[in-house]
Amino acid sequence: MKCTFTFKSVEESDLPILLAWFKKSHVDLWWPVPKDQEDFFKSFLERIRAGIKKPYIVSLNDLPIGYIQSYSVDPLTHPWLPKLPDNGNVIGIDQFIGKPDYLYKGFGPLFIKKFIDNLITKDPP
Length: 125
Prior knowledge:
By secondary structure, the protein is of the alpha+beta class.
């Protein structure tokens, strides 16, 4: 199967699918978020509007399967990290596969690589 990954900026219309994924046990273990729909939507919309983190829906061959976000890493907000380069160009990412049928099949490393390649080449994801 050919794997074509695309990354779409999260919009308000994506919040129902994100909430469903965040409630999955394999995601909830690492990503505790408000479980109430109204609270989740409010907190996620604040995140989107603040622009501190850039959230994306990951699609495989046009099927949404996961989530990835990027953000600038600041030593003041991430004090547990080792000393970082002083050039201010350190980017962090967080991600998960939301659809359980796509777990443990190697898709995670593939979409991470594609996303990082886009970041390095300055192509918007």
